[in-house]
Design a protein that fits this description.
The structure is a single chain. The chain is of the alpha+beta class and 149 residues long. It has one domain: STM4215-like (2-Layer Sandwich). It is built from two helices and five strands, in the order αβββαββ. Strands 1-2-3-5-4 form a five-stranded mixed sheet. Strand 2 and strand 3 form a beta hairpin. The chain starts with 7 loop residues before the first helix and ends with a strand.
């Protein structure tokens, strides 16, 4: 997958989703949708936990020179982990950060796609009570990639 200048935000989100789907194992082994627990938006129906969502949250750019149309672009992502308990949230979060950290220089890594300088800005834990005995443990991972357009 090549990052296209006219669809860069969408392409980065889809590429990160693809990397995670390839390298993470679904903890509950959904037989019909194996590795389909990673989405670009929260699913509207049949929500089963754990699940992961990836969305773009910011886009900033600066020129690479006075006579250049090229831009150094920072694309910020928010990866949310929804889990059944805090251990599951921690394990999935660690796995996600490790996969993104180690898939920069591989043959099909982010550098080959023109995505540079992966960094994690923050990881925030959130515990939500949904209904009487239903608690969802979330981790919100905020990270950035840089690209040249």
């Amino acid at each position: 997958m090549t990052i296209n200048s006219s669809t860069a935000i969408h392409d980065v989100v889809l590429f990160v989703r693809s990397i995670l789907r390839t390298n993470l194992i679904d903890p509950i082994n959904r037989s019909s949708n194996n590795n389909k627990f990673i989405f670009t938006a929260f699913p509207k129906t049949n929500t089963q936990y754990p699940l992961v969502t990836i969305q773009n949250t910011n886009f900033s750019s600066k020129s690479l020179g006075m006579q250049s149309n090229s831009q150094w672009v920072n694309i910020s992502l928010e990866i949310q982990v929804y889990a059944r308990d805090s251990k599951e949230a921690d394990v999935l979060t660690d796995s996600i950060v490790n996969v993104l950290r180690t898939n920069q220089y591989s043959v099909t890594g982010t550098i080959d796609e023109g995505m540079y300088d992966f960094k994690v800005d923050s990881i925030v834990p959130i515990v939500e009570e949904i209904g009487v005995d239903n608690i969802i443990h979330r981790k919100v991972i905020k990270g950035d990639y840089s690209i040249i357009l």
